[in-house]
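SRPBCC domain-containing protein
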Amino acid sequence: MSSKPIVNVEGREFVMEQIFDAPKELVFQAFTEAERLKHWWGPRGWNLSTCKVDLREGGIWHYCMTCEDQAQGEFYGMESWGKGVYREITPGERLVYTDYFSDAEGNETEGMPATEIILEFSEQDGKTKVTSRSIFESEEDLNSTLQMGMEQGIVETWERLGEYVEQQ
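Structure:
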């Protein structure tokens, strides 16, 4: 069984780590293959309705999460578009990308903070430790994103990842 995530917020960085009960190769693929991402990306009640991955340096990951849970009230039916631009890829080991809020065409949303994401994957006794470091331009950008519910959303997303990889 996967561990609970450990979260640390310091300065302009949001760091989360978790150990998943799955091989490193599978966990890396879950982060980099559209067909796998569709099974787990997004908080509970949200579905990855659009997902395109061009996994190469300079390539783009463009996606849309749609709220399908009527119990989430005003969020029901809402779409949340995002775009990642890959800067560094070390297969099975490390991903670095800049994450943006975007629209359906992939245009970055002005006034919304961009984030540098560094994901590192390491094997631990047949399981996989993932460390995610989200670096914002300023503490204010990090705080505004936290106020939007980022921590709860990413914790739920990684819970879904744990459930997904354990079923593979």
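The radius of gyration is 15 Å.
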